[in-house]
From TrEMBL:
Pathway(s): Purine metabolism; 7-cyano-7-deazaguanine biosynthesis
EC class of the enzyme, as a word: lyase
Family designation: Belongs to the PTPS family. QueD subfamily.
InterPro entries: 6-PTP_synth/QueD (IPR007115), 6-PTP_synth/QueD_sf (IPR038418)
Protein name listed in UniProt: 6-carboxy-5,6,7,8-tetrahydropterin synthase
Cell membrane listed as a keyword: no
Pfam families per record: PTPS (PF01242)
Gene Ontology MF annotations: 6-carboxytetrahydropterin synthase activity; metal ion binding
Keyword Zinc: yes
Catalytic activity, as annotated: 7,8-dihydroneopterin 3'-triphosphate + H2O = 6-carboxy-5,6,7,8-tetrahydropterin + triphosphate + acetaldehyde + 2 H(+)
Cofactor names: Zn(2+)
């Protein structure tokens, strides 16, 4: 089993309504997302991906489509947390992503794990995600921590 990691960056703003601190206000971050997958190398002779677990370009395409394109330079808000003026997007509020959960780093990781996992081939497993909100603060998601208890 081999693990591969690809790193992504995006800029996004959010607010945490009800939070007892400065993060209750709209503010932005330069996010860094580390995506780690695992699998066995494809050793089918003559195949274009011979010797690879998964092409980094294919992983990039999945994360770009599911995470980066929708969220880069967006404002993520919890549904129902803003007055009605924000309901009608305009030039200043042109890219609002409404989510049903508090838009914390932790909840974003749970959402990202589902989005990425659902787009990976069956033979490839999402192992972990690490989302840096600042250069010194991050949250992690590990598949091994989320296995069903038997």
């Amino acid at each position: 089993m081999i693990r591969l990691t690809k790193i992504f960056r995006f800029e996004m703003a959010h607010a945490l309504p009800g939070y007892n601190g400065l993060c209750k206000h709209i503010h932005g971050h330069s996010y860094r997302l580390e995506v780690t997958i695992s699998g066995e190398p494809d050793n089918h002779s003559g195949h274009s991906s011979e010797g690879m677990v998964f092409d980094f370009a294919d992983l990039k395409a999945i994360v770009q489509q599911e995470i980066i394109l929708p969220l880069d330079h967006a404002l993520m808000l919890k549904e129902g947390s803003m007055p009605s003026f924000a309901e009608n997007e305009n030039e200043l509020l042109g890219k609002i992503v409404w989510v049903p959960w508090q838009p914390t780093c932790e909840n974003m990781l749970l959402d990202f794990a589902g989005r990425i996992s659902n787009n990976l081939p069956e033979r490839i497993r999402l192992c972990s995600l690490k989302l840096y909100e600042t250069s010194t603060s991050y949250a992690e998601w590990h598949a091994s921590d989320n296995l069903p208890v038997t």
